[in-house]
Amino acid sequence: MRVGFAGTPEFAAVALQALLTAGFTVPLVLTQPDRPAGRGMKLLPSPVKALALQRGLPVAQPRSLRLDGKFPDEARQGQAALQTAALDVLVVAAYGLILPAWVLATPRLGCVNIHASLLPRWRGAAPIHRAIEAGDAETGITLMQMDEGLDTGAMISRRSLTIHADDSTATLHDRLAALGGEMIVAGLRQAAAGQALTATPQPAEGVCYAHKIEKAEGTIDWSLPAAVIERRIRAFDPFPGASFGCQDEVVKCWQARLAPGVPGSAPGTVLSAGADHLRVACGDGALDLLQLQRPGGKRAPVGAFVQARPGLAGQRLA
C-alpha cells in the first residue's frame, strides 16, 4: 500500500514514525514551509520534514494547494507530486493547510485524517487545549474520512482517553499522538488486507469548535473562578503560557492548585506567600501558584520567587 502523508508538528511526526515502523511505503510527504524559530529566528524544518529527510522520503512544501489561490505555481507542483506518487491513501495529521476537492479525490482511497478529539466535539485547530480548558473528563482520537468541510467527514474509528486532573496540553498531546499512531497503523493494515474502511457520519448533536489559541488568551483574569484559571494554566502549557503581572514583570505560571479563598478579597490579591506556594484570590476561591517562570528564566518552584520578593502578601497581581 502506497501511503502519502501530510502533517507538520510533532503530533504528526509521531504518526509518520508509526507508519514507517509498521513498514508502509511512503512515497510522498507534504508539510508546511520552513519557519523562523529560536532566538536567531533561523529557518527550521517542521518535525515532519526533519523525520522525512532523516528517512530519505520525498518532501513537498507548497504554501497552498489551491490551484486558484495565491500560490498557483506551488499548488500545481504539489498536484504533480501527488499524481506522480500514485497514492492509495493520504494520511493527514495537523497539516495546517486546507485540502481542496482535487486533493481529496486524488488518492484511490481518499484522505484519512487523525483528529485529536472525539468528533463532533472540538472540530477545528486546537482540540487538545480546548478540551482541557473546558474541563472535559475525556477526549480521544477520531480517524475520519475527509471531506471539504472543517472536520465534518465520516468517522472510521474513535478511541477515548481519560483527561487526568493534572494533565497539561503537553502531557495529553503525547498520549494522544501515540494513540493516533496506533490507530492509523491498525486502520491501514485492515485496508491493506482488503477489508473496507467503513465510515459512519458524524452525529448532528454535540458539535463544537476548538478555535485557534491566541497569545492574548494567556493573560490571567483573576476575576474568573479559580477552577477556570487552573484549567487554563494547564491548557496553555506549553503555548502560550498563562501569565500575570507582578512588580513590573510579566511572570508565567505553569502549575497551580485550588485553594480556599477569603471572603471579600479582591481578585488578584496575594493572600499568603510561603516557601511552597503563592496564594492568590480569584473571582471564586483561590489558587496556590506552584511553578513560575520569570522573564528570561526557566520554570522553577515558587519558593525562590517568593524569597526574592518579601512582603508579597496583600499586594495585587495584575
UniProtKB/TrEMBL annotation:
One of its GO terms (cellular component) is cytosol. Transmembrane segments: none annotated. This is Methionyl-tRNA formyltransferase. It comes from Ideonella alba. It is an enzyme of class 2 (transferase). Gene3D superfamilies: 3.40.50.12230. It catalyses: L-methionyl-tRNA(fMet) + (6R)-10-formyltetrahydrofolate = N-formyl-L-methionyl-tRNA(fMet) + (6S)-5,6,7,8-tetrahydrofolate + H(+). (6S)-5,6,7,8-tetrahydrofolate binds at residues 117-120. One of its GO terms (molecular function) is methionyl-tRNA formyltransferase activity. It holds the Pfam family Formyl_trans_C. It comes from the Bacteria. NCBIfam families: fmt. The gene is fmt. Attaches a formyl group to the free amino group of methionyl-tRNA(fMet). The formyl group appears to play a dual role in the initiator identity of N-formylmethionyl-tRNA by promoting its recognition by IF2 and preventing the misappropriation of this tRNA by the elongation apparatus.
